[in-house]
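Might you be able to check the backbone structure tokens below? Thank you kindly.
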Amino acid sequence: MISNTLSLLLLSTIAKSAPIADVEIPSTSDIHHEHIPSHQEKRGGTCSFPNYEGMVAVQTSGKNAGWAMHDDQECTYGSWCPYACKPGQLMGQWDPSVTTYSYPGSQNGGLYCDSEGNLQTPNSGKSYCYDGTGTFIAKNQVGEDVAFCQTVLPGNEEMLIPTLVGSGSSETLAVPDTSYWAGTASHFYINPPGVSVDDGCKWGSTAEPWGNWAPYVAGANMDDSKNTYVKIGWNPIYLEDTSPFKNTKPSFGVRITCDDPSQCVGLPCSIDPSSQGINEVNSSESSSGAGGADFCVVTAQNGAKANIEVFSV
């Protein structure tokens, strides 16, 4: 059975433009006044990116200046500022007063930039970045690098968090358990081979099939019984009537495999354009989600690991 968290993920609609909105200022009781020991500068009403404990600066040429925010958005006084972490790790800070997935509270991830330009750590008992479950591995079997781009949640859900998987190599993807914010899952866009994280891990346009126009998406989370639910599917935006890519088969495929197949339910689960049409999935248990996009889900039981393999077609 698919967990409620992943079910919500599979049915959610992927927006075509980054939602930039004001964030709520929390009450004093919601914030633990723990300063980050870094050389912050109070300049222009913004908080600088701290590069602290596993944090990864993203899209540094924009106004976001490294924060996991849209490139025209600044980490201003009185706002929440999400950040990316190294591959396999999850952001450990968010607004503790927001416990359900609902807007605008779902934007309140990361550190709080207070009215004096100090960064506050809302969850003082948590690290800035921490290891996920380690049960979902991306394996690259093509001749070029592949950019997996994770959405920012809590945050604006733009695909800003990079995991670059080199040719012939593998990387652990960040998978949350039920202790993560609001019990939500992680969600990834899978870019065509050869697309850099700088190009693929941000909102794109119809000029190229990457970013939010990438052909495939994936998702994962773990429940309290150590079952990891992993999903691969077609990106509904890629399939829209107005998409210039809707009739173009990708040059690569994806599939779920398991180190111990006896511990995995839902195999086979693959997308192979060499033998299937657009929006087709090879699975006896495939389903359709948002925008009619097909997907399949594999359950890796008892803490077993699942792999998402990228291959050429």
About this structure: Residues 4-11 form the longest helix (8 residues). Confidence is low (pLDDT under 50) at residues 1-43. The two ends are 31 Å apart (CA to CA). Helices lie at 4-11, 197-200.
